[in-house]
Amino acid sequence: MTRLSKKDVLRADQFTRDDIDLILARASEYEAALASKRELDLLRGKILATLFFEPSTRTRLSFEAAMQRLGGRILTVSEAKSTSASKGETLHDTIRTVDGYADAIVIRHPDIGSAEVAARATAKPVLNAGDGAGEHPTQSLLDLYTIQKEQRKADGLTIALVGDLKHGRTVHSLATLLSQFKVSFLFVSPQTLRMPRGIVGRVQERGIAFRETEDLGHALGEADVIYMTRIQRERFADAAEYDRLKDAYVLTRAALVKAKPSITVMHPLPRVNEIAVDVDDLPGAAYFRQSANGVPVRMALLALLLS
Amino acid sequence: MTRLSKKDVLRADQFTRDDIDLILARASEYEAALASKRELDLLRGKILATLFFEPSTRTRLSFEAAMQRLGGRILTVSEAKSTSASKGETLHDTIRTVDGYADAIVIRHPDIGSAEVAARATAKPVLNAGDGAGEHPTQSLLDLYTIQKEQRKADGLTIALVGDLKHGRTVHSLATLLSQFKVSFLFVSPQTLRMPRGIVGRVQERGIAFRETEDLGHALGEADVIYMTRIQRERFADAAEYDRLKDAYVLTRAALVKAKPSITVMHPLPRVNEIAVDVDDLPGAAYFRQSANGVPVRMALLALLLS
Amino acid sequence: MTRLSKKDVLRADQFTRDDIDLILARASEYEAALASKRELDLLRGKILATLFFEPSTRTRLSFEAAMQRLGGRILTVSEAKSTSASKGETLHDTIRTVDGYADAIVIRHPDIGSAEVAARATAKPVLNAGDGAGEHPTQSLLDLYTIQKEQRKADGLTIALVGDLKHGRTVHSLATLLSQFKVSFLFVSPQTLRMPRGIVGRVQERGIAFRETEDLGHALGEADVIYMTRIQRERFADAAEYDRLKDAYVLTRAALVKAKPSITVMHPLPRVNEIAVDVDDLPGAAYFRQSANGVPVRMALLALLLS
After folding, report:
1. C79 contacts in A (CB within 8 Å)?
2. Contact yes or no for B161/B274 (Cβ under 8 A)
3. Contacts of C280 (CB under 8 A, 6+ apart)
4. What sign has the CA pseudo-torsion B235, B237, B240, B245?
């Protein structure tokens, strides 16, 4: 196996277990190459276009770093709304045009399904960097890579997903991807922001154990990995409910005393206050390493799709 | 002949026939090199600055792809208005400054004549990527390149230019450039949006046959190439006149039944609805190929000006 | 000596005399290499991130040109405010994230001290490209480089700093840097916009001669170098005072008749009207050369910090 099963990266559930193993093994090689400052020239002469119809500097820079670390070049559209789209051009036409300039396209767009529209418009690889409330599959891959790297494996782990599980694109895709492994889940959220039944059903089908709770403290004692996400005030119909709950989902150094010493703390970033700053220098605070892992994981994807 | 006759690319009428032949031959070589994935390293160590005082993602990316396909580097200013200009700096000063950073400058600016101001401020090549209602000479060159490639020649063809011929920078420059060939023109537009008499006069001086008509259907039967452009509501003093005419200038698959089988359909893009989507998969629908041709044509220009 | 004394470039007063000599010697080498079109490949495989939380196209392009002239790559954030910061992320977190993508970081930020916050968040080099009313140390270095190049030395010169000396970050940093040399200063400003006493005190401690005056004409007769800066209307409590003074700080060709023939005229750019356009073609009008000197000086800094 030296190829992915699809030409595009659109959804977390598209990956076979072989795909996943191939991507993560390749990412590990590239991480070693970066650490030893070995020059990589694999994508010399190739161009990646990054089309961001909504801003996401973190994701854009991560892709652009990955492409350049492989010797490739980039075309950047950091605010694609100020472009032809504003003149009434369809996404299909925009992508067919960019197809003439680049060898692969990264797209971030506020509308669900837009990455699939883009993928159908071109024979070249399209990578979904977030389509609204839909998917963000490269984030899930780097999350999984981080778990495997920090914990030396994914199988056998108890993984707590914490926060707004109802609206969180990141936790949906990650739960989907992790369902290919022998993990247990703790879904930790307010009652009104529980994991959607569709995702829960998929987890059950795979025979994955899970438990739902509102109590972060309880979950902390059991988890090998705790994945924090943000709860946004605007998701609550009732402001009083938000005020009652918001502090319950802040992870502090004091709270981590009852966690396993080997716990890995993750967050997709940016954080606002979901993780207290005093957690940052604990050995298990992995969120900045997690973010940096985006580079080798995206290098692996680009190399597999383009070379 | 291995050099252009001027240091800059500012206007469609600056090109001698030798210039044109040189550019298009070189573009053809680069297109072949791109198709065979041959590495080009001609502009290694050179930097192109793209200064866009109004957004035009398509044109910017096309230039940036061209420069990078030749091994060169880019400096991008995609929204130049948020720069020194807003602090009161003149265009002359801005260009003299960028002259210190780059080996050539692409400029897009809302004011007619701004590219010529820029060219006088520096000894380095300046390429006009659109100066308001003025010129867009690299667009005309890629249009011409497309005609020659799709039809194997330009001489002898009947070329219909359709839409708002009064305000359309693109059709003005293209008519000017094509006047160096033995073509016939059909100018198809509403009476109030006819081709300016200055352009018509130039065409006549060259001894080029042309006819003006309001009737797209009529033109369709004769044309070898049909070049569609947009008619904007705001160009009409009378809204009723716009409503009466707008559908008459939409090209559909049904309407193309009466065209020559070998017809080439072009459009500078972005399109709104001037060409129905069902035209896209006809063999003569050349507009996305046309857009992609911008890369080898701009590679040719950059290579000729910089190496 | 082949290394700078610090990992970052944050303030003009951080440089030892050895640092300064090393940077300027290296800049001179790179300028010669650029002039002879010699390929430089020193930073091949390295990535520089330019994070601009407020726009400054000139400074950004200068750094990006410098990095690319050395064979390195760039990640650009030209409008960083439309990023994670707007989602409530701290600067510390942003920098720790970018640390995962790039080998060095240039930061421009409206808040004083922000570059130091950034430098503490990463072990990688941080270069301050302006922190509000604080510092802009790379500008001072290129100013000093320009003085030495135009006048063949800095020691022994009489240098007039003209304009709003109270708020001008540029003149504060330059005065600080020049205090390491045996110069004399003329501080030329309205009474209400005099050089801050802190800077004057530092100059005195170093035993540097200086004189303060409101009269530009008087200073012109004595200066070897005249460094013009802008006086902004909004700095005056009293509009009448602004109207009285604004023309007194405009340098004209006529006024330069009484200057030394060897005078060097400088300006950090952009200019509005502080220097009349008819000065531009005098041999001593060095401001566009000064701006271009930013490239070799920043190449020197990047090379010393990264290789």
Report:
1. 78
2. no
3. C288
4. negative
CATH class of C138-290: alpha beta
What count of other Cβ atoms lies within 10 Å of the Cβ of residue B3? 11
B271 and A89 within 8 Å at the Cβ level: the answer is yes
Secondary structure letter of residue A251 according to DSSP: B
C interface test, pick of A38, A46, A61 with most C CB neighbours within 10 Å: A61
CB contact under 8 A, A39 and C45: yes
Tell me what pLDDT residue C236 has.
77
The pLDDT of C63-92, averaged and rounded, is 87
> What confidence tens digit (pLDDT) does each residue in C175-214 have?
999 999 999 999 999 998 999 999 999 999 999 999 999 9
Q: pLDDT at position B231, please?
A: 86
pTM of the model: 0.96
Distance between CA atoms of A92 and A70, rounded to whole angstroms? Answer: 29
Look at A270 and C44 and tell me if their CB atoms are within 8 Å. Answer: no
Alpha carbons A69 and C59: distance in angstroms, whole number: 25
- As given in the structure block, the two tokens for residue C230 are 């802008």
- Best of C60, C68, C142 to substitute, by most chain B Cβ atoms within 10 angstroms, is C68
Question: Same topology for domains B12-135+294-306 and B138-290, yes or no?
Answer: yes
Nearest chain C residue to B51 by CA distance is C57
Provide mean pLDDT across the span B64-92.
Answer: 86
What per-residue confidence (pLDDT) applies to B86?
Answer: 67
Closest to C270 (Cβ–Cβ): which among B45, B76, B93? B93
Q: pLDDT for A258-267, tens place per residue?
A: 999 999 999 9
Domain definitions of chain C by residue range: 12-136+294-306, 138-290
C246 pLDDT band, cuts 50/70/90, is: confident
Which candidate in B2, B17, B37, B87 is catalytic? B87
Just list the catalytic residues of A. 58-59, 87, 108, 136
How many helices (H) and strands (E) would you count in chain A? Answer: 10, 9
Provide CATH code, domain B12-135+294-306. 3.40.50.1370
Distance from CA of C136 to the nearest CA of B (A): 17
A12-136+294-306 maps to which CATH number?
3.40.50.1370
Does the pLDDT value for residue B139 go beyond 80?
yes
- Return all residues near B197 (Cβ < 8 A) that are at least 6 apart: none
3-state SS, residue C212: strand
Whether residue B46 lies in the annotated active site: no
Catalytic residues of C: 58-59, 87, 108, 136
Chain A residues at the B interface, defined by Cβ less than 8 Å, are: 44-45, 47, 49, 73, 75-80, 82-84, 87-89, 93-94, 96-102
pLDDT higher than 80, residue A81: no
- Rounded to two decimals, the ipTM of the complex is 0.95
